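Lab meeting notes turned into a lecture example. A postdoc, R.K., suggested we walk through two folding results consecutively so the class can see how the record format repeats. The first protein's sequence and structure tokens come next.
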Amino acid sequence: MSISWLRAASIGLAPAARNGDHSASRRALHARSAPRGLRVLLIWSAFVGFVLLLLALDLGVFHRHAHVVSVREALGWSAVWIALGLAFSIFIFFGYEAHWFGLGGAVDAVDGLVNNGRTAAIKYLTGYVVEKSLSVDNIFVIVMIFAFFGVPAIYQHRVLFWGILGALLMRGAMIALGSVLIARFHWILYLFGAFLILTGLKMLIVKSHGDDLTRNPVVRLARRLFPVTDHFHGQRFLVRAGSDASHAPALPGGVPERDETVERTPVGRLMLTPLALALVMVEVTDLIFAVDSIPAIFAITADPFLVFTSNVFAILGLRSLYFALAGLMHRFRYLKVALAFVLMVVGVKMMVARPLKAIFGEAFNFYLLGLILAILATGVLVSLRRRPDAGDPHTSSRTHP
């Protein structure tokens, strides 16, 4: 699968040049094919290394010690992550325009356009906006998970950090699989489009409701495989029965509480803490949400590099966005309605991209970006103008785990 994905990323889903001197094209392709694959591998490796560096700095330097993240700090970091995501569009523009590291020059299977600098930048920004807005819907469920397990605010950043790292790995695997499927079976684009339309309709029709996570099959499986402590033991996800860690207080400087599960568990056996269950549920939630968001980005472009990078930058800022918006999520009553329409719009676009290209020309991707921004802005503005009711839902309208 990895070889097929690299071939789709380096060569593109269809060659850009169809006419002209075929012998010259073959000679040029032969001259470039070997180094181009290496250059594509280099840019992918460099980007992944850059992301790992950002994550290492985040956890090892800026958030080395557990602390409660203030709204002011969260807003500052949100601005940093958003600025990085938007700034990367500049690299996309020049990289695809000048074909740095073998980027661009291929026909996009979604709309039949060659991804030059301008087209690639618009698709990247559109994908970034869609993924960022859908990640906000993720916050609704994370708020519910942390409230259900009673995760102390001081440890929430740690759960989100490892949760997002796992989310990046899962989404990378799903994007690789999606790229291979689209390269081999073009008709799957229409299946993705229909799925997005149905998902959007479901978000409009199905009412949100709180779930008892103790009955969740993943939580029940985790409890069956491992004993779970009654209380938090610092910021640990795992402890061994009878160890000093199993008697650690829930909060720094606190008094250790009696943990009956620890007392009746054989000494030395590995145990999960409630913090680990919260992490598991965050991972499961993102996996379920990715089933919506990955087809949504493939509705915009089939270019694996654009799909992956826009996803990564949208997800990287999720932690800061959570701390900035967690206490205000009930105010965005109509944001989920706007997200439903966004999913339906990109689903329709995925199914009729070629006719839209014939009607509006290459600028139709720019119009799509404007339409998505208008829908999201309308949802936010209408929500802020309406006084929240006491019965407003605080959870997502998408199916919870």
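The second example is placed directly after the first for contrast:
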Amino acid sequence: MCSYTVRDTQVMLDSDLARLYGVETSALNRAAKRNENRFPEDFRFQLTRDEHEDLRCQIGISSDDLRKFATGGRRYLPYAYTEQGVAMLSAVLRSDTAVRVSVQIMKSFVEMRHFIADNAAMFERIRAVELRQLAYQRTTDAWSVRKTPLWGVFSDKARAS
């Protein structure tokens, strides 16, 4: 299952959900659009061009796929569904497959939440190490710039003595 972080929120893209539900992406989005009142902005939102480009780079969509976006195939920016939006899709699509897939997707979101929670301390420690490393690098760079000319290893005065 492919979930991504967009706008600091775990989401799944309409095309991934359509594949899981066994429907066309356009049919999935039409069903959501017919039931717009069930999909507020925090359930479903359309990606911006920048967000789409960022995801495209992350997940390795080829330039051929990007050309299809402009000349055929996908004509609109993808929609992203949050955990609540995914749950709402099962009510909108009303099929056994939709219910089964929705349960699997919800489990995926729960697993991701547990993974993040279980590893939060490790992520924080990595961040602290990175910050210390950057501070050390700045200190070392500043020291080396100040001290190198004073060493006189390659200066004329050092050779004369």
